[in-house]
User: What shape does this take?
Amino acid sequence: MNVILVGPPGAGKGTQAERLQKTYGLKHLSTGDMLRAEVAAGSQIGRQAKAIMDRGELVPDEILIRMIGERIGQPDAAKGFLLDGFPRTVAQAQALDTMLAGRKQKLDHVIQLVVNNDAMVERISGRFSCKKCGAGYHDSFKKTKKPGVCNVCGSTEFVRRPDDKPETVRTRLEAYDKQTAPLLPYYRARGVLREVEGMAAIDEVTAKLGKVLGAA
Ligand code: AMP
Assistant: This one.
């Protein structure tokens, strides 16, 4: 089964994809994570992408199309993938269609996490994670039990994404409205788009996604 999660930054795509990948045995592919790994490795793609990502803008289509084209062909995605953060433009969606047709594969579901965009700035700008184990927290919604200490590994070092600053989040939301929202009519016209209310509690959203995907 091949699934795409669509929604603005902060909608919960990554959180839900992590849960669904375990239940359904799908490979969670986050292009944001892939690009951050390229930046951390100092690769050519990482060097091209870093400043664009820090501004909250979209990295050029050719780079993402090549990256995802190589990734979905790998054995760990053979049983199906769960795309988070790709496609983000109609050109990327068209390229994905061509890649899948070439592999005789299809898209089973494109699920839009429907959220209130205005709430996303607060959701994202409070995010931070443990530098050592990656556990995710939030200044208001998910604090550490002991101030300054990771619940999972006890580390006292935390990191924030450079693009989670409120002013950059606003640019990312604008990029979503202008460049990514046009995917919704594109997929609706093809009969694969499903909507799931994304403002509910995390467990409730997971349950609703499970209804769309069917029994694991
Ligand atoms: P994310 O982790 O999905 O919020 O992505 C972080 C940043 O990576 C975005 O703000 C973009 O700069 C870049 N990015 C991730 N996926 C894509 C994509 N499909 N197309 C263009 N840029 C992307």
Notes: The longest strand covers residues 109-114.
